[in-house]
Amino acid sequence: MKTLSTQIENLIDNSQYNKAVNILAKKFNIKLKIIDSTYKCTQWGKNQPRYVFKLQLLRGRKSYTFEFGQSIAKGSEEPTLYDVLTCLQKYDVGTFEDFCGIFGYDNDSRMAEKTYKAVVKEFKAMERLFDSEELEVLQLIN
């Protein structure tokens, strides 16, 4: 994995993001399927509607289905695998208190707790798809 990590780091350092992701997709057998899209406000951006895609990240017989709010700047453009991998949680955020401290949330907020639970759920899905060494390599995509 060290050689792969070095290769990915070099590509990222040279702004070759999609090339780096394509190598990882091939190496880890990752596919991205777009199931649907809608234009709506999300729970995270209540006042700014955007295109929200229902996506499925596939790896062999395993999959993770989730919603992805596209950048407002990209409009209705379909997300790339790079777009998605940069946003998915690839680190364990620890306890709720740890999470609030790391990301600057108020630990007395229900919205912060809801966000924390969503982040933990997403990380657990990533752990189902990838082992710890693979997650370390994917952490380079940020």
Would you mind describing this structure in some detail?
It contains 6 helices and 3 strands. The protein has 142 residues and is α+β, with helices and mostly antiparallel strands. It has one domain. The chain has a 3-stranded antiparallel β-sheet with strand order 1-2-3. Helix 1 packs antiparallel against helix 2. The longest helix has 20 residues.
Question: Quick summary of this structure?
Answer:
46% of the residues lie in helices and 20% in strands.
Q: Treating each run of at least 4 consecutive H or I residues as one helix, how many helices?
A: 6
Percent of residues in β-strands = 15-25%
Q: Determine the N-to-C terminus distance.
A: 18 Å
Rg estimate, integer Å? 16 Å
Stretches where pLDDT is under 50 for at least 5 consecutive residues are: none
Instruction: Note the main sheet.
Output: 3 strands, antiparallel
Q: What is the number of domains?
A: 1
Order of helices and strands: HHEEEHHHH
Structural class: alpha+beta
**What share of the residues lie within helices?**
40-55%
Write the layout of secondary structure elements.
Elements: H1 2-13, H2 17-28, E1 30-40, E2 50-59, E3 62-69, H3 81-87, H4 96-103, H5 110-129, H6 132-138
Antiparallel strand pairs: 1-2, 2-3
Helix pairs in contact: 1-2
